């Protein structure tokens, strides 16, 4: 994963564009992509800041609602495979899936 551009570089790009330079020209001068310059100006216009946004984060736990079912079946049948668990879950739901 790449790291955010430095704050002074961000400030320089925004200052250049606000003083009349095109985004494309400022991007070339500061050695960044045109899309990075465009996004910097969009962030500045929307928030008044050029600080980077949050990076990363936590994924939603998609199996959490099924925790009790999964743990219960594994207690009953410790050698249960993922395919077997899926079949049991679909049988309980009354659905048929391949």
Mean pLDDT: 89
The proportion of residues in beta strands is under 5%
Query: Roughly how many Å is the radius of gyration?
Result: 25 Å
Please estimate the helix content. Answer: 55-70%
Task: Give the count of helical stretches.
Answer: 5
Question: Could you say how many structural domains there are in total?
Answer: 2
Tell me about the largest β-sheet.
Answer: none
**What overall geometry do the principal axes of the alpha carbons give?**
rod-shaped
Find the structural class using helix and strand composition: mainly alpha
The termini sit apart by 37 Å
**Could you state the order of secondary-structure elements as H and E?**
HHHHH
Unreliably modeled segments: none
**Total beta strands:** 0
Describe what you observe in this structure.
It is a single chain. This protein is mainly α and 98 residues long. The protein folds into 2 domains: 41 residues; 30 residues, no CATH class. It is 57% helix and 0% strand. Helix 2 crosses helix 3. The longest helix is centred in the middle third of the chain and has 14 residues. The mean pLDDT is 89.
Distinctive features:
98 residues; mainly alpha; 2 domains
Question: Concise description?
Answer:
With 98 residues, the protein is mainly alpha-helical.
Topology (SSEs and partners):
Blueprint: H1 7-18, H2 23-30, H3 34-47, H4 67-76, H5 82-93
């Amino acid at each position: 994963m790449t790291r955010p551009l430095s704050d002074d570089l961000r400030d320089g790009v925004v200052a250049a564009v606000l003083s009349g330079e095109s985004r494309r020209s400022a991007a070339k001068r500061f050695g960044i992509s045109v899309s990075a310059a465009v996004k910097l100006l969009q962030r500045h216009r929307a928030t008044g800041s050029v600080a980077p946004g949050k990076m990363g984060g936590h994924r939603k736990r998609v199996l959490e609602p099924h925790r009790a079912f999964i743990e219960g079946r594994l207690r009953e049948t410790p050698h249960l495979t993922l395919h077997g668990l899926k079949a049991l879950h679909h049988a309980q739901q009354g659905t048929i899936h391949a």
